[in-house]
């Protein structure tokens, strides 16, 4: 190479020459990079502008060569940016990220659009002069997704707050009204003589009472789901005999099973260890499982309540001879509000979600085994109390 006398134009020429050489060397990499690679000389004029930069900024290299870097920046950044590059030129650091606020800077496209970018800058000394090279990535898409996600999260939180508000109204106001209706129906039934003339009226009042009780149960279920989700479930645990728990369930459901044309059976291992549980909550788990078992088992079938010892735990079970659950439904069965497509809509799809929450809140686990047209077996295990 022939030495070139100093002077601004000469300097630029020399820089361009070394750049052309290094570009020739790295041209493959520089041109295919999807990042913008932009070099400026000491006077901050653009001396290299790769294809990535053309794509991101919308300029052809020829349009910006020799122009000040400012054309690629929004007006309000011109001054700070110049200072930043100058300061970087003086600092002993050879490369670093650009921008300060959450490490992104703003770029300006040919069409005037301003966009966020991530950039790092490095410097090389060539023939006694500095060359600054920025590698820049357009992050507007990422920022857009981040913003969208933040908005979605906000909306989800809003929805959750609204739901909690609705639940509070349901729990107080609706609860009071339902209790009022129940008291009134009881008074009516007590005061209305059971004469043949009153038979139809009494039946209608009975039906109001029945429907109101259903609403009370739904209200209770919604509250339980909210409590389970919030981790606010109160559990009063005491030692109980597994057999006594099963017997209690048996007594509660024998009549309903009979009415439905089913046999209710029990299979309880002798000498089972006690379990430390909230009795009412365990009966509620059983109640949810047995109601389903009865609902899904055809006339003539049997529902079996079980309690067995399996290493260190007592496993309670409710098995039926009903329709069974298709394998593709099994993963959803304990989800809130979930019901099989074919299910009649008589429930809200909360029973199993509540059963799972109640069992887990007492240190246990629940599972299901099922085969279509053969039946289902739900079982939940609870730790055995120390002897
Ligand atoms: N013993 C069972 N046999 C067949 N399907 C069942 C059984 N128990 C639950 N399921 C299925 O799981 C769904 C959810 O049950 P559950 O949470 O108790 O809600 P719900 O009883 O209100 O529908 C039911 O709708 C049904 O599709
Ligand atoms: Mg149910």
Q: Catalogue the ligands.
A: adenosine-5'-diphosphate, magnesium ion
Q: Which term fits the overall shape?
A: elongated
User: Helical percent range?
Assistant: 40-55%
Quaternary assembly: single chain
Explained architecture:
- By secondary structure, the chain is α+β, with helices and mostly antiparallel strands.
- Helices cover 47% and strands 21% of the residues.
- The chain contains nine helices and 13 strands.
- The protein has helices at residues 8-32, 51-57, 61-64, 78-90, 140-191, 199-230, 242-259, 279-296, 351-361; strands at residues 36-40, 46-49, 95-97, 105-108, 114-126, 129-138, 238-240, 263-268, 275-277, 302-310, 313-319, 365-371, 375-383.
- The strands form three sheets. Strands 1, 2, 3, 4, 5 and 6 form a six-stranded antiparallel beta sheet that branches. Strands 8-10-11-13-12 form a five-stranded mixed beta sheet. The chain has a two-stranded antiparallel ribbon with strand order 7-9.
- A hairpin with a 5-residue loop joins strand 4 (105-108) and strand 5 (114-126).
- Helix 6 crosses helix 9 (351-361) and helix 7 (242-259) runs parallel beside helix 8 (279-296).
- The chain is elongated.
- The termini are far apart.
- It binds adenosine-5'-diphosphate and magnesium ion.
- Adenosine-5'-diphosphate binds at residues 288, 292-293, 296, 320, 322-323, 325, 333, 338-340, 343, 347-353, 376.
């Amino acid at each position: 190479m022939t030495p070139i006398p100093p002077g601004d134009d000469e300097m630029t020429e020399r820089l361009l020459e070394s750049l052309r050489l290094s570009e020739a060397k790295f041209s493959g990499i520089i041109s295919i990079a999807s990042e913008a690679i932009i070099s400026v000389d000491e006077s901050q004029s653009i001396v290299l502008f790769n294809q990535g930069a053309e794509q991101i900024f919308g300029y052809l290299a020829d349009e910006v060569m020799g122009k000040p870097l400012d054309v690629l920046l929004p007006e309000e950044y011109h001054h700070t940016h110049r200072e930043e590059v100058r300061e970087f030129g003086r600092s002993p650091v050879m490369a670093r990220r650009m921008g300060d606020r959450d490490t992104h800077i703003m770029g300006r496209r040919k069409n005037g659009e301003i966009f966020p970018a991530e950039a790092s800058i490095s410097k090389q000394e060539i023939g006694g002069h500095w060359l600054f090279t920025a590698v820049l990535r357009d992050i507007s898409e990422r920022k857009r997704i981040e913003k969208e996600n933040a908005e979605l999260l906000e909306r989800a939180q809003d929805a959750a707050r609204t739901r909690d508000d609705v639940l509070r109204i349901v729990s107080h106001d609706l609860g009071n009204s339902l209790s009022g209706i129940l008291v009134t129906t009881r008074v009516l039934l007590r005061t209305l003589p059971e004469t043949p003339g009153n038979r139809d009226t009494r039946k209608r009042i009975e039906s109001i009472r029945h429907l109101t009780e259903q609403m009370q149960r739904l209200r209770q279920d919604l509250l339980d789901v909210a409590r389970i989700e919030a981790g606010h479930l109160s559990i009063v645990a005491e030692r109980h005999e597994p057999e006594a728990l099963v017997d209690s369930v048996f007594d509660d459901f024998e009549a309903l099973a009979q009415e439905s044309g089913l046999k209710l059976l029990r299979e309880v291992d002798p000498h089972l260890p006690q379990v430390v549980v909230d009795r009412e909550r365990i009966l509620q788990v059983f109640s949810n499982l047995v109601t389903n078992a009865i609902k899904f088992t055809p006339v003539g079938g049997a529902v079996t309540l079980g309690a067995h010892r399996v290493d260190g735990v007592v496993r309670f079970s409710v098995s039926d001879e009903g329709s069974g659950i298709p394998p593709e439904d099994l993963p959803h069965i304990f989800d809130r509000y979930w019901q099989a497509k074919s299910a009649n809509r008589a429930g809200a799809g909360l029973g199993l979600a509540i059963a799972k929450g109640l069992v887990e809140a007492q240190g246990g686990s629940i599972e299901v085994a099922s085969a279509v047209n053969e039946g289902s077996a739900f079982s939940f295990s609870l730790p055995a109390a120390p002897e």
